[in-house]
Amino acid sequence: MATLDSKLVSVVGDRTTKVLRDLFGYVSVGDLLHHYPRRYLVRGELSDIAELNEGDEVTILAEVFSATSRRLHARKGNILEVIVTDGSAKLSLTFFNQAWREKDLKVGRQALFAGKVGVFNGKRQLAHPDYELIPDGNDVDAAVEGFAGKYLPMYPASAKLPSWKIAQCIELAIGALDEVPDYLPESVREKYGYPTLHQALVQLHNPADLDSAEKARQRLTFDEAFMLQLLLLSRRKELKNLDAVARPAHPGGLLDAFDAQLPFQLTAGQNTVAQEIAHDLAQPHPMHRLLQGEVGSGKTVVALRAMLTVIDNGGQAALLAPTEVLAAQHLRTMQKLLGPLAQGGMLGGSELATQVTLITGSQNAASRKEALALAASGAAGIVIGTHALLGESVAFKDLGLIVVDEQHRFGVEQRDALKSKATNPPHLLVMTATPIPRTVAMTVFGDLDVSTLRELPLGRQPITTHVIPVLEKPGFLERAWERITEEVSQGHQAYIVAPRIAAGTSEDSDMDFLMGESSTEIASVEELGPLLSGGALKAVKVAPLHGRQSAELKDSTMQAFTNKEIDVLVSTTVIEVGVDVPNATVMVIMDADRFGVSQLHQLRGRVGRGTSPGLCLLVTNAEPESPARMRLDAVAGTVDGFELSRIDLEQRREGDVLGASQSGSRSHLRLLRVLRDESMIEQARDDASTIIESGISGYPLLAAELAQIQADAASEYIDKA
């Protein structure tokens, strides 16, 4: 008998094991049994051969009339052709590289055959049909009843290993399988009426009917949700047990001085989130909080207040940003917000003041040396940087808080490298401007506390979005350029976004082509800039910005744009996050169908950040009613990022959201879908929480299963803490 941990070779033999390992990475019986069917075919009632039509899924009772095997001419291998008859007509059955079946299908042998009718050289045939031989003297009627009406699983397969062959392997595995111990607590299983784990595995692959297959699928889907929530909640419990330096609010300190000089009032949402963060920082264990909010909802101010709280307690804060443009933008924003409070130790600086410094990979030696000294001495309470912050030469006097901006752009190792620079476990605040549906947050960031900013700051103007369908209305594009000129004449500025830097190239770090259709004529910054400067926009000042420029040029261009020395920025998506120019009111996105929903939402958040309304124009050659056009219509139809994130998730692969596609390992999540299974995830969360609170040691099988997942390298992609 076999267990789920048994080697596959003991069940299916060496050659098949090698194919399963090469194709899917499977090495154990459990791996194979977790290769789930995509759908089922139902063998129908018996059909007469004379009445068969191309494309029919049929089951026939027939007798072997002849069987011949021959070598293929064009390529290696052989083909077995079997002619069968039921008295009404004859039918050809073909088997490639399966000459051994000739021993089964001897002339005069009766059998039941099932498959899809095809036509080759004008003759009807079944290629690789399922069949069941009827032993001599057996009851034909009983054999027909057992064969027809059976549910046939259809598996993810390949040319090397077709579905029917996988089904054979799984049948062998199930036949050899000993009773499978069930790690799901009996109270949980009975609560939902789920089958046991053994029953679920058997019923999913060999269902008596579709109802039993669905119950098995539900049980195995719940297992994925339940184990994931256990993993995340157990991590959260471990984090709560770590010792950290409490950083409570200090009346009369730097934070109070900052609040007193703020030229605006915080929104109700900002105040609520600020209180949640202050409470976390005051605890003797590390804060692990996700701060999500719409583009322009004021996350930076909330994060800065958390940094000042830590500085009031003698600590330092590090802000990790994904790009140099964004890091430089954060530096300018924080220096502007702090004013004299960012001039610690300088003439005119406040007694309470600290310093803010920047560390990036392209700094000159002198600037880098000065920034490293400020960080190491503690003179810089706030250290902003890109991946360069992770370098060995970067040291802190007392790193108390790490803020990670655009969390999805950083891996586990990068975050841990920064945490290792702290003497004690630091507090952690991760931010994202890509709104996450509640269930996704629960599934991906389940070991973090989640704070959400939904409202926009007072005075922020709405953004209007329109689709410009070039194929149907080419004149609309000319009107877009006129609109930019009009806005500039009123003292405003504009962005024009192109997917590519130069013709025939794409910028991997800036461009997400997952959603786009291939095209040979895609707008590029280097072509579009000169074209518009010498034509439709010759009356305004146009400048390019893209990721291949030097850091100095990018920074000076952004600074000139901020200072209104440039009217129109023709850019790739380097401006997607963090760029804050309140005077910019118009954005034109070329080939907008090349971008994902969330990315379009992020991009348009760069306009309408001041007191004037924003306008975003999505230029596309996509056909009406095409999926690409429907995406753009969805973006134009709402500014609710949470609604758009749901649309985005529905249209994308689940792995892109959960991170499995980047993990390099197989995902544990095979059946779970975060939107379809929302209620199940919430139930699993509650059940997992109960188990963790009562102590998982009381469930030894469950504890062992969780330990296995924790040890598996594939669980690293879940580690978003």
Automatic annotation (TrEMBL):
Enzyme class, spelled out: isomerase
Signal peptide annotation: none
Catalysed transformations (reactions): Couples ATP hydrolysis with the unwinding of duplex DNA by translocating in the 3'-5' direction; ATP + H2O = ADP + phosphate + H(+)
The Helicase C-terminal domain, residue ranges: 476-650
MF terms (GO), sorted A to Z: 3'-5' DNA helicase activity; ATP binding; DNA binding; hydrolase activity
InterPro entries in UniProt: ATP-dep_DNA_helicase_RecG, DEAD/DEAH_box_helicase_dom, Helicase_ATP-bd, Helicase_C-like, NA-bd_OB-fold, P-loop_NTPase, RecG/Mfd, RecG_wedge
Keyword Cell inner membrane carried by entry: no
A Pfam family that the UniProt record links to this protein: DEAD
Domain of life: Bacteria
Single biological process term from Gene Ontology: DNA repair
Key words, A-Z: ATP-binding, DNA damage, DNA recombination, DNA repair, DNA-binding, Helicase, Hydrolase, Isomerase, Nucleotide-binding
Residue ranges of every copy of the Helicase ATP-binding domain listed in the record: 280-453
EC number: 5.6.2.4
Family: Belongs to the helicase family. RecG subfamily.
Its job: Plays a critical role in recombination and DNA repair. Helps process Holliday junction intermediates to mature products by catalyzing branch migration. Has replication fork regression activity, unwinds stalled or blocked replication forks to make a HJ that can be resolved. Has a DNA unwinding activity characteristic of a DNA helicase with 3'-5' polarity.
Name of the protein in its database record: ATP-dependent DNA helicase RecG
Organism field: Candidatus Planktophila dulcis
